[in-house]
Amino acid sequence: MPEGAAVRDETGRTYVAGTVDLDSLKLSALQTAVAMAVASGAKSLEAAAVVTEAAEAAPQDRAAVRDLGGPATPVLVAGPDGTVRATVTAG
What we know:
alpha+beta; five-stranded mixed sheet; single chain
């Protein structure tokens, strides 16, 4: 399912990404945004957000945010219309 996501690192930089769906590589938008932050040298995350049709952030997405930002990192989940449906922690 196509999604969009963003994460903000400890210095205020924001990384925006979409779903990667290749034959050899599949990443959700949030996993891709976290990977972009790591590749750019981020040491932590302040927050994450995902726009999705799903009712909640997938466990593997929350795990990726937790790995870099810690269990208290907020994850905002919004619908395709931009309405925030939930704010949870990565924990």
